[in-house]
Specification:
The protein is α/β, with parallel strands linked by helices and about 300 residues long. The longest helix is centred in the N-terminal third of the chain and has 24 residues. It folds into three domains: about 80 residues, Arc Repressor Mutant, subunit A (Orthogonal Bundle), CATH 1.10.10.10; about 100 residues, D-Maltodextrin-Binding Protein, domain 2 (3-Layer(aba) Sandwich), CATH 3.40.190.10; about 100 residues, D-Maltodextrin-Binding Protein, domain 2 (3-Layer(aba) Sandwich). The protein contains eleven helices and 14 strands.
Length: about 300
Amino acid sequence: MDIEELQTFVEVADAGGVSPAALRLGVSKSIVSRRLVRLEAELGVQLLARTTRGAALTEAGATFRDYAARVCAEIDVARETILPAGDLRGRLRVAVPLSFGPTHFAPILAEMARRHPQLQIHTCYSDRFVDLITEGYDCAIRVGYLQDSNLIARRVGPIYGKFVASPDYIKAHGSPETPEELVAHEALMQGTESWQLMDGDKIITVRPQGRFKADNGIALVAAATAGLGIAYLPDCLTHEYIASGALMPVMTRHPPPPAGAYVIRPPGQHPARKIRVLTELLIEYCEPAPHLWGFGR
């Protein structure tokens, strides 16, 4: 039984179809289909029921999927164990935020590819919340405050941010000084998130309201400079605008607590070595001098 056939079957099962699985694997749909045909012929059972919407697991396929996934995981561990020290092979699929991923994380991923020429790195840059398990990612780099989940997180560095607004907005609406005043202002947000503020050593949570929302930090910077409201943004996106006077810090007596950059992975007993190497590389770049690449004060 070919390990590529097992891996392909697991990808199709998790992705829900041949086309998305082919995209994940980086091969053609015809190759995926041939592998599935060979596997089903060898097992003598139908694993997938093809439909116009994709592919659904049969009862036998649902049972076999878990065994196949465990076999693939064990093979990956075995391959890592026998590789020369420091050598990485295979593929790493990682989801990265779009707002400053291309400027801050892309160079680190490129350095990882340079150090490990046998490793394939496939990166998705998006500010949407990527479901690692459903969409088949090995890990994600996320920034901000983590919500409770069953995912495993490792902090790789601090991220500092500020509440900011344009001089025109402050002239027209004033500058809030207290959490109560802040929630009365027009907020620029990614969605329906809450904001955290420091009151001495205590953290206060407020739920702002606003008519302008965007799932991208750079878009929120544009809205803030246009005078549409107050935004909470990381320093690496706003420091140039603050230096030029296009934006001004507000709520300086109640700053947001430091957030973080994290490597997130699905639950499992041990992280794959490629994820450990990426995590260590991010820490190597970020922790000694985070201000040099925009994540520190």
